[in-house]
Design brief:
Order of helices and strands of chain A: EEEEEEEEEE
Helix content of chain A: under 10%
Structural class of chain A: mainly beta
Strand content of chain B: over 45%
Distance between the termini of chain B: 36 Å
Oligomer: heterodimer
Strand content of chain A: over 45%
Radius of gyration of chain A: 13 Å
Shape of chain B: globular
Number of helices of chain A: 0
Chain lengths: ~120, ~110
């Protein structure tokens, strides 16, 4: 079955940076758009960014535009999220998810922004 | 951005009850509406896509309907494992948005 495994979360100070990774397996990674979705503690889901299969189309939520960069390496079956200028409100579990309908999700990685 | 509004925010129901959750979009999204179930400490799971198509492996007691701006998720007979939070999400716009969630609790 499709597997998505996130990594790279941790504790970072406000203003700092972090890079998340999502390793995909057991499907043809190059055929699907990929997404990052986050969930702050005790809150609902928030779509963060998406990238098309060939990286031609990239979109961001207004809340992260200009600070976060989504990218992918199709040769490595991997998705990334570079997060800069982090704020306390970016504290959340970050999930990678496949396709427009988010049909498969990873287990999530926790990012905590705190001094 | 397209705003998604779910109602109610929470509900209490008993095993065997029929449950309906509503989702309204701030503009027409055709049938580009998906439903997810999330249990505490776990990733969301896709239940319904395209407003009414059941994802593979999802029990038939779940169903979705609607188009345009108004959608519903129905659980025909609530099972113990269905107590969870449910989210709608639009995939019409390139800026995907979720509803705020509906928590289904045990009465």
């Amino acid at each position: 079955e499709v597997q998505l495994v996130e990594s790279g979360g941790g504790l970072v100070k406000p203003g700092g940076s972090l890079r998340l990774s999502c390793a995909a397996s057991k499907y043809t990674f190059t055929s699907y758009t990929m997404n990052w979705v986050r969930q702050a503690p005790g809150k609902g889901l928030e779509w963060v960014a998406s990238i098309s299969s060939g990286s031609d189309y990239i979109y961001y939520a207004d809340s992260v535009k200009g600070r976060f960069t989504i990218s992918r390496d199709n040769a490595k079956n991997s998705l990334y999220l570079q997060m800069n200028s982090l704020r306390a409100e970016d504290t959340a579990v970050y999930y990678c998810a496949r396709d427009y309908i988010l049909d498969y999700w990873g287990q999530g990685t926790l990012v905590t922004v705190s001094s | 951005d397209i705003q998604m509004t779910q109602s109610p925010s929470s509900l209490s129901a008993s095993v065997g009850d029929r449950v309906t959750i509503a989702c309204r979009a701030s503009q027409s999204i055709s049938s580009f509406l998906n439903w997810y179930q999330q249990k505490p400490g776990t990733a969301p799971k896709l239940l319904v896509y395209g407003a009414s198509s059941l994802q593979s492996g999802v029990p038939s007691r779940f169903s979705g309907s609607g188009s345009g701006t108004d959608f519903t998720l129905t659980i025909s007979s609530l099972h113990p494992e269905d107590f969870a939070t449910y989210y709608c999400q639009q995939s019409y716009s390139t800026l995907r948005t979720f509803g705020q969630g509906t928590k289904v609790e045990i009465k």
